[in-house]
Structures are given as structure tokens and as C-alpha cells.
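User: Second chain of the day. Same drill as before.
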Amino acid sequence: MTDSRCILFIGGGIETIPGVQLAKSMGLHVVVSDADQNSPCVSLADDSLIASTYDIDGSVGVAREYNDQVRPINGVICLATDVPLTVASVAESLNLPGIPVEAAKTVTDKLAMKDYLVSCGVLMPWYAPIKSADELLKVISERGYSLVIKPTDSRGARGVLLLNPDIDLDWAFSVAQSFSPSNQVMVEEFLAGPQISTESLIIDGVIYTIGFSDRNYEFLARYSPHIIENGGDLPSFLSTENQISISEVVGLAAKSLKIQNGVIKGDMVLSNGKPYAIEVALRLSGGYFCSHEIPLNTGVDFLGTAIRIALGDSIEINDLVPKRQQAVCQRYMFPEPGLVGSVYVPEWINEDPKIALYELRVKPGDIVAKAIHHPSRAGVVIATGVNREDAQRRAERAIIETKISTTPE
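Assistant: Same format as last time:
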């Protein structure tokens, strides 16, 4: 396939690689914008621009210059990078398809997002801003310890803590605040129940929730009070009725944000039979959810469709109908903290066709930090299977048999 059009990816990190590769396979001219010109995607792209993904004015400036002086940009997108406002601003500046800038602004701040969505009828856990450890203590005295403290404007579980009676509240508030560029902190109720990651396409105002994964939090006690997710499983164990109710909440969020064409990802929880939105984001997810897990599970080219939406193409709705429900399991590697001395990868991992992705992110000489947020993960495995248990066994075996030896610093 050949296509002379140009697409700009905001951000060139490792998890954006599948998007760049897919866009190039579609015949598109690919440009990557990133402050780091050594980022993984720069060498894969046809051209690169220098701008921080969080520098909106800078990103708009380099995109306009490239568009005016080199070649027209036909679409802009981000993958595994939490910069929907940068993407929306570039799209608006170049008159390209995209989500409304106002919607992107709303979801960039978790408090603003929650305030707006709750006013539109979206069900969310109780939440409130806090400005000090003393305020946090007051909230706990009124509501108990089933609370999460987090920065209002960070990502990747940075600074997110599950409170408990043994926690130092001054420390907890300080940690959450340290990960907030604006120094803003909030608390929200921790609702018991299965948590779900969703990923949806929005086409002409209609939402299609194709990605639906059960989030794995088996290490809550191990890494407490830090909340570390250890992958997920597809298809979901939830009933069709529950899945529909969760999808309806995501749909209401998308409609409330006035998204006509684009993507929306949801962090959802089903508690006491009711679906709640913890957060939503107007971007493609990280963790290879949209690039690997959804197509493996459903047979739907989710990422390719998102690229075509960004270009303003017409989408054949029949292509979005899941063709299967193959079992998929994703798990992460968490070696002991310290200096990496050696790494052993069993040969069978590279030979097993049901290991759909195996990515090791450390090598001898690297330092493995204590797992306190999602960037602490040292590697990832995605496996398929004849059923959920089979996929889990294969992924977990790959994790267990990968030997990353470390010595304390």
C-alpha cells in the first residue's frame, strides 16, 4: 500500500514504535516530534522534530514550520504518551482532524476532569482536593482509610498511594505533591471491585468500545502503599451485562466531552454492581494494549483505525466488529532493586509463537530501582492461549524463568 500523506507522532518512546512501524507499513510519511533526538522512534521515522511533548507552543511551532516549509502534515496522533492537549493544539493549529482543545484541557487535570464529568452524570468515586497533610488527616477521620492520594496532573501511577493506618501522612502528601507539576494533590475513594481498562474508538459521535481488559493488582500488598498494576487479561471475566454497563459510562464520558472522532481510554471499576469511571484519557494507551492486546484478542486493527481517524479517513464500521475472543495475558517483570549483574532469557521464549511480545528493559550494568510506579517495570510479556488460564501460565512462566540477577547498591 502506498500513501503520500504525512502523519506526525507526538512522542517517540519505545511503546510508540508499533505505531510508527504500522504507519510506515501503510505507506505514510512518518514524522516524530520529541525533545530527545535519541528516542527510539526517531531513527525509524522519515523525519523528526525537536520539541518536548509537554511544550504545547513549541510543538505547535515546529509542526507549523515543517508543515509550511517541508511538506503538509495530514494527521497528528500520540501513542503511549499522555499528551492529548499537545496533539489537539497541533491539530487545531494546522486545521487537522482531532479532538476539541477544550476537551483535552479538561482531561489533563484530574480534578477538572472529574468535576466536569460528574456534572454531566458520569458516575465516579468520591474525590476531593487537599492542600496539606492536616487536610488529609481530616478527610481520613471522616471517611476512613479506603482512600487513594494522587497528584492531579501526573501519569503512570507516579505518586499514587493507597492509604492505610500505618502510613505517615506528611510523607504521603509530600510524595503525591512531588509528582505534580502544579503541586496539586487530591484524594479519592478506593472502591472495592474488579478494575477494567477500556479502549474505544469514536466515529461520527458513536463510540465503539473494543478493548476490555481485567486489570491485575496481585501485588497491592507487596508494593504497598504504592499501587502497581501487573498487566491484565482479555477477554474479561465480567458478564456481558456488566461489560455493557461499563461501556455505557465510557460512552457518556465521550459524549459529554463532545468528541466526534478520536479515541478514549477508561480506567473503570465495577463496585457493588455499579460501573464507575476512575479516570478517562483522550489518547491511545500505553502497555501495548491498543497495538498488541486488542488485535490479538479481537482481530480488530484498533491502532490502524486510530491512525486513519487521525487522518480524517472514512471508517468501515464492519471492520470494528470483533472476529474472535482469543485469550491474552500481559504481565510485567519486577526484579529485586539493585545493580543488574546478569540476565538470562530461556530459548523457548523466542521460539514460542504464543509469546506475542517479550520486551526486556534492563541489561547488565543498569540500576533497577524500587518499584514505586509503572515506569519501574523492567520488562513485559504478552502471551496468548487456548483459554485464560493457558495464556496466564505461559506469560507467568516467561516471567519466572527470566533471571535478572541484582546486587544491592
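The chain has a mean pLDDT of 96.

User: Great, on to the next one.
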